[in-house]
Amino acid sequence: MKPWRFAALWLVLFVVAVSTGVELLSYLSYLVLFVALAMWALARLTLEGLSVKRSIGQSYAHLGDTIELNYELTNDHGLGKLWLEVFERSNWPEPLPGRVLSIGGRKTRKWKVLAKAQRRGRFHLGPIILRSGDPFGLFGTEARVPSEALLLVYPRVVGLPYWALPGSFLEGNVLTGQRSLQSTSMVMGIRRGSLDLPRPGRALASRGRRGLDRGAGGHRRGVGRGEGLARPPQCGSCDQRAPCRGPPSGSRHQTVWQAHAVPG
Fold first, then answer.
1. What are the backbone angles phi and psi of residue 5, rounded to the nearest 5°?
2. Helical H runs in the chain?
């Protein structure tokens, strides 16, 4: 019943009691007024000391999944609540189910709500509404708890058992028709000094054998600055049949040697 309707009914009862002089109607009008004042004071205390919390199991889901919402209602007041309605406003595709319950003084109530994701998109939850009143329903009270949350619903994930990404060939594991310089190398890292990299302006195929000339067991041979360079089969200065082993003390032979050597 609306408060103004109750006030109008009491006013009519009081006027009739005064005009007729019937004591029973007078006592009844006083009793009704006393009950109305008591219910109004009780309605003001129904939401005192109440707090509610909501926790979400996950902030995102896929289409068709079920989201779990956990609520916790706490009454820190010594006076119990006879009835209390708890529900939540949101733009969820379907209204989230609320609950009507009673709670004693300094008690805690917990419950769980399951919501199924029926449409993808962004959905905002909150605020939480607490609604109560007096036992006769004459006066009602309402409170809003600002507990905002965001839920993301993605499209449904469908498994593809007969489709897979093609695998790539690892270098050195299979025979390919490509040349090594045209294929992608699997370089994990370069340590300084481990490779004899070409210098600017120097062809890739004209690198010396320094760093590539290794003996048995993986040990590097002693290759000096002038060794490992291409030599002519016969020196054009000293008429020797065997390859020249090094520049003699003469300046002319040393000049010829430098002309035959490959620039390093």
1. -70, -40
2. 3-20, 23-45, 251-260
CA separation for the pair 61, 160 (Å, rounded)? 20
What amino acid occupies position 194?
A: S
86 and 146 in a single domain? The answer is: yes
Q: Which of 67, 142, 69 is nearest to 111 (CA)?
A: 69
**Are 115 and 134 within one domain?**
yes
Count of domains forming the chain: 2
Are 41 and 59 members of one domain?
no
Full-model pTM: 0.58
Structure confidence by residue, pLDDT tens digits, 136-179: 888 889 999 998 999 999 999 888 888 877 665 555 565 666 56
Report yes or no on 187 lying in a domain: no
Query: 7 in helix, strand or coil?
Result: helix
| pLDDT tens-digit map of 232-259 | 444 444 444 445 555 554 444 444 444 4
Closest CA to 86 of 104, 74, 76, 68: 74
Domain, as residue range, for 26: 3-45
Omega before residue 127 within 30° of 0, cis: yes
Catalogue the E-assigned strands of 171-246: none
